[in-house]
Every structure is written in C-alpha cells, then in structure tokens.
C-alpha cells in the first residue's frame, strides 16, 4: 500500500515490499528538547527582569517540563509510533509559554500580596494529571475507530456534562456571572471543556452513520441545494443546545465554540455549503433574539463597540478589555520584555486574557509567533484529517483540529477586540485544569488518528496494483478519464 | 470529504490572519494612543519607576529624585528649594506636570532623541534607563534675593531678570508661590488635598505671574513710545506739551499727569523731561501723533503679539489692544487702556535697549546633559530682531539714567549707574479705588549692561493706594541687580 503522506521521503521506492516507514520520533524528541530550551531561557528572562535571584522554581519548572514531555514522548513512541512528530512539540511549547506567563504573573501577584499561592505549581500539577490522562488515552484507545462504537454514549454524557452546571445552584457552578463550574469542596472542573470532545466524538460517529441522510437533496434555492426540513434536526438540536448554554449558563464562548464545531463537522460530512448558510442564519437569528433579552450579552457587545468610552459604565464596564488593549498597545511591536510589563493590571490575565499578557511582554512579534504555533498545530491536525483513510477518523481529526483554531479565534479575538469578548480559555496557554486536561486528551486522540494515517499496512496484506483513487488524498485528485 | 477539510483549513488560516491584522492595528498603529491614554496607568508607573533627570541651577539640583525603597515607585521627585524655583521647575506628580517638568519632559524622562545613544547603551548593558539633566541659566544668588525681597514683605508679583546680550534668563520669581514637593508626593490623598488647596487659593500660587499672566504696564510702556518717537524725528530735546492735563479728543475725559503735576517747568518741557518725570500728557499726544500702526510695529519688534514664544515654557502673548479710537490711542500711550504685558516681556524690552537695540531670544535652559553630566546640547544666544538703532537705544539709556535719578525709593548701589523706568499702573473696574500695580524696569551698569530686570508688585504691595513703582518695586529691582553684579 502506498504511503501518500511520506511518499516524498521514499522516492523511487517501487515497492511490493515497503521499507520500514520512518517514524520521525527522533524529530519529535529534538523538537521537544528545543521547546524545553526555549521555555527555560524565557524563564531565566522572567526571573532576571523581575530582579529575582534565579530560584529553585526555575529548576523545578524546567525539570518538570522535560520530565513530563519525556514521558509523553515515550508513550507516543510505544503506542502511536507513526504519529505526526510536530503535534506534541507544538502543544508542549504552547504549554511552556503559558507556564512562563503564569509564573511571571505569579511573581507580580506575590510581590503585591505575599500570602498568595503560586498558581504555576498548581498548573504543573494539572500538567502531571494531563500527561497521565494523555498516556492512558494512548494506551487504551489504541485505534480511534473503536470510539465510533461509543458515539451515543459520548453524546449523552457530553450533553449531560454540558447542561449540568446550568441546573446547579450558582454557589456550586457560578463564577463571574457564568455558570460553567462544578465545584465540590476546593476542587472544581468545567465539564464544558470535556463535553466538547465527547460531543465531537458523538457527532463524528453520528454523521458518519447517517451521512447519506444529509446529502439527500432538498429544494434548490439561490443555486444551492438545501436539505429537507426533517434532516435538519441535528443542526437545530445543536442550535438549541448552544442557545441553552448561552441562556442558562451565560457562557457566550462555549456556546459559540460548540455551535461552530457542529456547523463545520456537518459541512465536512456533507460537503454542502448550504449547511453553512443555514447554520450561520440560525446563528444570526439566535443573536438577534438573544441580544435584547440578555443583559450580559448586550454589555459585551457595547463594550466591544466602544471600549474606551465605557470605562466607567455602570452596567458592566469595559475595564478588563481596555486594560487588555492598554497592555497590547504598551507592548507595541517588540513588547516590554519578559517580566518588564504590568500584566497583572488585566483582570484574569492568567486565564482568558493570557494572550494580552503575552502581547504586552513579548509584543506583536511574540503574539504572532504564538498564533502561528496554533495555526501550525491546527494545520497538522487537518493534514491528519486529509491523510487518514476512514471517514470517522477524518471527521474526528478535522473536528479536533478545528476546535483548537476556533477556540483560539474566540478567545484571542475577544481579548483583542476583534469580536465581543467571551469567557473561554486559550488552549494550553491559559491557567486551568479542565482546559489543560481536555486539550491533552484532544492531542492524544489526534496523535492516535495520525498514527493510523501514517502507519504502514501489515506486510502480510497483498498489495493491490494501484491505490484506489480515493486514497490519493494529498495530491489533487485527478478526474478519472 | 477532503475538499471541505481544505476549505476549513483555509478558514482557520483566514481567522488567524484576521487576528494578526487586528493585532497589527492595536500594537502598531493604535499603540501610541493607547500608551498615552490618561487611564493607562502602565505608562505612568513605568515613568515613575525610572530615575528622572535633575534640573540644575549653579551646580546644585533644584529638582531631583530620592529613592523610596519601594518596588513599584522606587523614586520620588523632590525639590530642595521648592518654592523659590517653583515658577521655573513647575511640579511633577503622578497627576500631571507643569513648568519645565512639562516643557522638558522628554529630556527629563529620558525619551528625548538627544539621549538616544545613551538609551541604546542602557539597553545593551542592562542598566536601568535614566533621564537627562537640564541645566538652567538662572543665577542662584539673584533668584534667591528676588524671592526673599518678594516674600519677606508678602508681596504678590513677579521678578524677571535677563542677561541683555544673550537672552539668558537670570531670575524668574512669582509670588505667592507653592511648594512642588506637596504635589510630587506619592501619597495620593495628600496630593489631591494639596491640589485642591492650591487651586482654591485666591492668591493663585500655581500661576506663574512672570510669563502666564499679563498686566497693564503703566509708565514703563513710555519707553516703547519714546523709542518710536525717536525713530520718527524726535530727539531728547524735542519740545513736548508741558500741561498738567488735557481733554481726550471728543470726550469729557481728562488725561492728567501724575498728581496733576506740570511737566518740566510748566511752560515748556522736553522729551527727556517727559520720560524723567513720567508725564502722561506728552505720551498721550505722542501716541496719537505716531498712530496705532507705528506703535504696533514697534511693539512687535520688541516681542509683543507673539503667541508662540517659548522659553521653553509657553509665554502669554503681550498685546497693545485694539486702539479703536483716538482716546484709546492716547491712553495706550501711557500704558493703560488695553495694553497688557507679562513681566518677561517688560524685561525683554529693557534688555533690548541695554543690548543696543538687538532683541535676543529669552531662554531659561542653558545645557542639556546626559545622566553623567556630559554635555549633549547647549542653547546658543539667538538674535531675534534689531528692534531699534543703537543711537535710539543710547538716547533711551540716557533718559533712563535720568529717570532713575528721579525715581526715588531705596536700594541705590554705590558706584553703579542704573538706567530705569518706573510705572504705576491703574487697573480694575474702579481704577481710583483699586491699589495700583507697581512696576520697575531697569538695567545696569548703564555703560556696560550685565543685567536687565523687570519687577511687578501687584495691587499696591504692602503700601496700598499710595504705592508707586519707585517706592515699592524699585528697591527690589535694585537688590536683584546688586546681587547679579556682585556675583559677577
């Protein structure tokens, strides 16, 4: 069987018997070491600029980083040896940059109030748990296709997790107006972070099994074929769930994220632009209906339209957004230098607005680098989707990759006033256990799919003379003549 | 399914590009505005964390910083002789800045281009950036003398002294004054209390009377009219109207001399005597004869009507007023009606006479220095205009020597010939019931002028209705001249 993904690395292999496929695991190790080096240098800069002595924290952060990703790397070597070598290093570097920023914000916060706990140690704790989960997913899932069998289970659990905080009292589920937590005692998780992956699995399996239904032609209108009304149930359900999240949990970000994900997955499954049109129309309708009804939504929009004019607005001021803009503006092109800015002036700088803290200290150049890292991560994910052979894998991989991109767009766009701001975390960067756990599970799944995509076939299987046209996926598909 | 996946990839790319474009707008184009926004405490905190440069007078700082030991605000601005130099330094506080603290802010905070190389080396060596030093032209002894003279008697007013041949400002005092330390404090409560107190003070201590406020110049203005007359055919010996008063044309208003005195011997008088005795009638008539255009032209040659004058603080523009009819021109001739001058403008006028008619650009900053006191820039004497011929200036000087002999008051300096002119300016809604402003403009030594000075004591000083320029203002001017000449 041909290996389209790495065909270029084996030119001239006319092969009844394919050679050992390069696993590129050493590339991954090298990149991980490079990420660790960058993170350590950045850490030294932070400490130097904060006029701290180089503390043991530095060593702790560096060693923890290397050890954790060493373990993750070994797990990938063992259970997903052919996985894309870039995905894990990208996630690691983003995680490392986040760690630096959280440590940096810690230093400023502790300087102002010495009794505060260092968040960075808790974040490292979450990283440990995340990597453990990452390894477990790799070890137990092994083949992503088995997940299709649990589609409905995932769907129910996901929907339940998504909806649960909305039904809990505010004292358990609320924070900053939104009801997205489940907190018992000191610990808390945001079930929405996990729900997005569970629902993604459900949608992938559901769409694959019912794909034909959605492609049945309905009416033609404006040059596009629209689906029949009765086939639109999943879309309407997603819409209703999103509106529900918006209304009952006041979580604009998750609502947007969830709806965008469903829209894109339906589009990929059906290959029909009409679904996008329908989805966006529904979204627009939802906005128009919700805007006058919900004050928290209106305040976000007003603050987005005129942040500087609403610094003292009584119905919910734009302080946070303006501080974010001030931070970004003060940072300018090259930033104030790591440890040289005042990111603690932005409320929630370590979670939703961490990108602004990064923008203040390493400037436009730094934020651009971080955004490009995200873009590369998403592109590797989508490339996996292109390369994998089964429809379920394709849908899963593209969903997993797209959700990272969409989440980045929502959170960064919100913090930089491209769109109204919403409470949502930046994948890998932000402080927060649920987000980190969910995103490492996401990466583990993506690695499994890419392993499947790049794994050479078992040698026993006789090779067909010519690869079916449907498998020549990385090249332009030539029309059969 | 690959085509939609590719389109999704393109969509994600576009989303990231949109984020980058938006960030470019914020961090590159909008950034200056965001950085300078009054609510952006980052910029201010950053500035407060930097070591601001000193303002130096005679090798000693009049504005410097002390280390607080605090992390966020490691330095605090402090003014060793606060009230004495407050009209020049202004104040620097987290809430705002005035005076030189504002005018030379880029140098003091280190952002000025002249400090660029220095900043670069700081960046490389990792030293904390420091601001540059501003060295002033002020003469410490003169400044302190003027300050003492004004405050000892609790006078409201201003003293300005200029070095005639360079335009260097040697003295700039404005009283009542304030202590900039009260406003530079990092204790925001104490600061806002001080601000409120100073802003509500009826003596308006935050106003720099030397440059920010204009007042009627009274008889000191006669020097300007005389200069115009000398250039239009008059000499010191030309005959002028000796009458004790005249009726202003077309009105019932009388223009009397001071105390209704005759001029000269009452039958005939010369221009010299008119200046010496400060007769009003001849100057009313001279102004009428010369006409508004000539007066305006002469005034502009001497620095009037220049709204862009900076020393580098902005100076209020001195104006003649409209002179819309002949009575107005008569009254303008004696420095009343709508004539308004700053003490600095009056000092510039006598400095120009002392400098043989060449007007020099006044300035208070002598040298810009690096934090290590290396010279980065020096203000060179700048000739602005030949306001009058040397002959006219010489003639005026002789008249002023005579006027000084006639002026009376205390404080004459033995062995030094002073050329001066006093003024007693009426003002207010009911001029006869309001205590007059007392003026004294002078330079010395008359034969080789080193110092030109203008003194304004507002509202009668401590003498009240009987105040005259000679009695109230002249002793202060002479003391400042004495301090200047004695100090070499």
UniProtKB/TrEMBL annotation, chain A:
Superkingdom, natural source: Bacteria
PANTHER family per UniProt: CELL CYCLE PROTEIN, PEPTIDOGLYCAN GLYCOSYLTRANSFERASE RODA
Membrane topology: Multi-pass membrane protein
InterPro entries reported for this sequence: FtsW/RodA (IPR001182)
UniProt-listed Pfam families: FTSW_RODA_SPOVE
Listed GO CC annotations: cell division site; plasma membrane
Ranges annotated as biased composition (Basic and acidic residues): 472-481
Protein name (record): Bacterial cell division membrane protein
Location in the cell: Membrane
GO BP term (any one): cell division
Record region (Disordered): 1-20, 456-481
Any one Gene Ontology molecular-function term assigned to this protein's record: lipid-linked peptidoglycan transporter activity
Keywords: Cell cycle, Cell division, Cell shape, Membrane, Transmembrane, Transmembrane helix
Keyword Zinc-finger: no
Membrane-crossing segments per the record: 29-46, 58-76, 83-103, 123-141, 150-168, 180-208, 229-248, 254-270, 275-294, 362-383, 395-416, 428-449
Source organism (scientific name): Actinoalloteichus fjordicus
UniProtKB/TrEMBL annotation, chain B:
Domain of life: Bacteria
InterPro entries in alphabetical order: Beta-lactam/transpept, Beta-lactam/transpept-like, PBP_dimer_sf, PBPA_dimer, PCN-bd_Tpept
Biological process, per Gene Ontology: cell division; cell wall organization
The Penicillin binding protein A dimerisation domain, residue ranges: 52-134
UniProt keyword Cell division, yes or no: yes
EC number in record: 2.4.1.129
GO molecular function terms attached to this record: glycosyltransferase activity; penicillin binding; peptidoglycan L,D-transpeptidase activity
UniProt keywords, alphabetically: Cell cycle, Cell division, Glycosyltransferase, Transferase
UniProt source species: Actinoalloteichus fjordicus
Keyword Cell division: yes
Stated name of the protein: Cell division protein FtsI/penicillin-binding protein 2
A Pfam family assignment: PBP_dimer_2
Residue ranges occupied by any Penicillin-binding protein transpeptidase domain in the UniProt entry: 157-481
GO terms under cellular component: plasma membrane
């Amino acid at each position: 069987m041909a290996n389209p993904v790495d065909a270029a690395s084996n030119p001239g292999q006319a092969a009844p018997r394919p050679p050992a496929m390069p696993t590129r695991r050493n590339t991954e190790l090298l990149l991980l070491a490079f990420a660790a080096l960058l993170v350590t240098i950045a850490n030294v800069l932070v400490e130097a600029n904060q006029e701290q002595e180089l503390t043991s924290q530095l060593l702790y952060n560096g060693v923890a980083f290397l050890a954790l990703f060493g373990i993750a790397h070994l797990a990938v070597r063992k259970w997903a040896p052919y996985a894309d070598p870039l995905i894990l290093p990208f996630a690691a570097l983003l995680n490392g940059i986040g760690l630096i920023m959280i440590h940096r914000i810690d230093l400023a916060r502790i300087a102002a109030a010495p009794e505060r706990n260092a968040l960075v140690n808790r974040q490292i704790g979450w990283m440990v748990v995340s990597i453990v989960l990452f390894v477990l997913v790799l070890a137990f899932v092994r083949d992503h296709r088995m997940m299709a069998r649990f589609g409905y289970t995932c769907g129910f659990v996901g929907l339940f997790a998504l909806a649960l905080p909305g039904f809990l009292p505010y004292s358990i589920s609320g924070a900053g107006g939104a009801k997205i937590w489940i907190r018992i005692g000191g610990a808390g998780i945001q079930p929405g972070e996990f729900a997005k992956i569970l629902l993604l699995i459900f949608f992938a399996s559901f769409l694959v099994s019912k794909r034909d239904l959605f492609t049945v032609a309905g009416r033609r209108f404006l040059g596009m074929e629209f689906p029949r009304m009765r086939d639109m149930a999943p879309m309407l359900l997603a819409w209703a769930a999103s509106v529900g999240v918006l209304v009952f949990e006041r979580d604009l970000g998750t609502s947007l994220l969830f709806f965008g994900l469903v829209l894109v997955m339906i589009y990929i499954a059906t290959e029909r632009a009409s679904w996008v049109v329908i989805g966006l129309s529904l979204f627009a309708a939802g906005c128009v209906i919700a805007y006058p009804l919900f004050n928290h939504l209106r305040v976000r929009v007003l603050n987005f339209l005129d942040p500087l004019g609403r610094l003292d607005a009584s119905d919910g001021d734009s302080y946070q957004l303006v501080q974010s803009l001030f931070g970004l503006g003060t940072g300018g092109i090259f930033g104030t230098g790591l440890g040289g800015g005042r990111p603690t002036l932005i409320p929630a700088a370590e979670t939703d607005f961490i990108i602004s803290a990064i923008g203040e200290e390493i400037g436009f150049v730094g934020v651009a680098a971080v955004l490009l890292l995200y873009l590369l991560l998403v592109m590797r994910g989508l490339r996996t989707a292109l390369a994998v052979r089964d429809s379920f894998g394709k849908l899963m991989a593209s969903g997993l990759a797209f959700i990272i991109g969409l989440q980045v767009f929502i959170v960064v766009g919100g913090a930089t006033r491209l769109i109204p701001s919403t409470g949502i975390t930046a994948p890998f960067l932000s402080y927060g256990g649920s987000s980190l756990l969910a995103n490492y599970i996401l990466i583990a799944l993506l690695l499994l799919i890419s392993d499947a995509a790049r794994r050479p076939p078992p040698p026993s299987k006789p090779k067909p003379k010519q690869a079916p046209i449907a498998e020549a996926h990385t090249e332009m598909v030539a029309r059969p003549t | 399914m690959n085509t939609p996946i590719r389109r999704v990839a393109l969509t994600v790319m576009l989303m990231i590009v949109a984020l980058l474009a938006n960030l470019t707008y914020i961090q590159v184009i909008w950034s200056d505005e965001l950085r300078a926004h009054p609510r952006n405490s980052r910029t201010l905190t950053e500035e407060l964390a930097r070591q601001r440069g000193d303002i130096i007078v005679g090798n000693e700082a009049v504005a410097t910083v002390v280390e607080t030991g605090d992390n966020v605000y490691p330095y605090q601005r402090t003014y060793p002789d606060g009230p004495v130099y407050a009209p020049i330094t202004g104040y620097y506080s987290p809430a705002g800045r005035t005076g030189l603290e504002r005018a030379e802010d880029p140098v003091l905070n280190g952002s000025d281009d002249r400090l660029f190389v220095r900043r670069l080396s700081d960046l490389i060596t990792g030293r904390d950036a420091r601001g540059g030093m501003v060295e002033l032209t002020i003469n410490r002894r003169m400044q302190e003398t003027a300050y003492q003279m004004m405050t000892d008697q609790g006078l409201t007013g201003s003293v300005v002294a200029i070095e005639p041949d360079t335009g260097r400002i040697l003295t700039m005092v404005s009283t009542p004054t304030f202590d900039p330390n009260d406003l530079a404090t990092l204790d925001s409560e104490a600061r806002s209390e001080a601000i409120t107190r100073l802003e509500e003070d009826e003596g308006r201590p935050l106003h720099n009377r030397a440059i920010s406020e204009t007042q009627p110049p009274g008889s000191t203005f006669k020097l300007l009219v005389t200069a115009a007359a000398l250039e239009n055919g008059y000499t010191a010996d030309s005959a002028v109207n000796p009458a004790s008063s005249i009726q202003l044309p077309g009105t019932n208003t009388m223009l009397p001399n001071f105390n209704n005195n005759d001029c000269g011997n009452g039958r005939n008088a010369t221009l010299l005597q008119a200046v010496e005795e400060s007769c009003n009638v001849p100057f009313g008539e001279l102004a009428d004869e010369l006409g508004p255009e000539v007066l305006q032209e002469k005034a502009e040659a001497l620095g009037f009507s220049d709204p862009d004058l900076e020393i580098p603080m902005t100076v209020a523009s001195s104006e003649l007023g409209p002179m819309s009819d002949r009575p107005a021109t008569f009254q303008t001739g004696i420095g009343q009606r709508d004539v308004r001058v700053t003490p600095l403008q009056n000092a510039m006028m006598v400095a120009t006479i002392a400098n043989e008619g060449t007007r020099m650009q006044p300035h208070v900053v002598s040298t810009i220095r690096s934090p290590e006191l290396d010279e980065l820039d020096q203000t060179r004497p700048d000739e602005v205009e030949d306001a009058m011929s040397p002959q006219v200036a010489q003639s005026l000087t002789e008249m002023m020597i005579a006027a000084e002999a006639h002026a009376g008051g205390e404080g004459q300096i033995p062995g030094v010939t002073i050329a001066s002119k006093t003024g007693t300016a009426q003002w207010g809604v009911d001029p006869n019931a309001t205590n007059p402003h007392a003026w004294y403009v002078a330079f010395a030594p008359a034969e080789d002028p080193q110092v030109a000075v203008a003194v304004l004591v507002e509202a009668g000083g401590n003498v009240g209705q009987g105040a005259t320029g000679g009695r109230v203002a002249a002793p202060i001017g002479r003391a400042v001249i004495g301090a200047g000449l004695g100090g070499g």
